[in-house]
Structures are given as structure tokens and as C-alpha cells.
Design brief:
This protein is mainly α. It has helices at 9-22, 27-34, 38-46, and strands at residues 52-53, 58-59. Strands 1-2 form a two-stranded antiparallel ribbon.
Length: 60
């Protein structure tokens, strides 16, 4: 497991969506597993116009 998440927002987006697709049923489960602040991370992705879609279980 990573010690920290990627800093670059595009790489972060790719990393999170891959993890959601392959390992986690929800963004909340991912955030818990990585011990991160879900709202803060979602805000970083919102800054590049991506929002979490629970039905798709990915940021779109």
C-alpha cells in the first residue's frame, strides 16, 4: 500500500478510479482503507471538475 496518495490531481484521479474499480465498493471504503479525509480528497478532484458518482463507483 502507498504511504501517501499521488499529489498530481490527474494521477490521483486515475489512481483512485483504478482502486475503486479493482478493490473497493465505495469511495468511503477507499478513504477508510487509506486513512484519508474523503471530503478533502474529493475537493481536490472537484477542482479539476470531477465528482464522485456512487452509482458508477468512480469519479466522472
Amino acid at each position: 500500500m502507498y504511504d501517501r496518495l499521488p499529489e498530481d490531481p490527474i494521477i490521483l484521479l486515475s489512481f483512485i478510479n483504478t482502486q475503486l474499480r479493482d478493490h473497493y465498493a465505495s469511495f468511503e471504503a477507499f478513504a477508510d482503507a487509506y486513512a484519508i479525509d474523503a471530503a478533502e480528497t474529493a475537493a481536490k478532484l472537484a477542482a479539476i471538475s470531477y465528482e464522485y458518482d456512487p452509482a458508477a463507483n468512480r469519479f466522472i
